[in-house]
Structure prediction request, 71 residues.
Amino acid sequence: MKSLAPIITPPENFDRPQEDWLELVSSMHFLQTKKSRNLETARQIIEKQKPHLAQYVDAAQERLKEVNLLH
Prediction:
């Protein structure tokens, strides 16, 4: 669980509830691992379906890589 702490905790500049952060990182992970979407396609999907979270896609991507959930 300790190794997943970076993914659970939103970045300091994330000005939304923690639930939104978890929604974003789980959506990014799902799109890229289960749906085999590349980063740009995943970004476009997030922008269309969750525009309130789109500006944080890069932060979510970085955190997923930090905890080795994406390569």
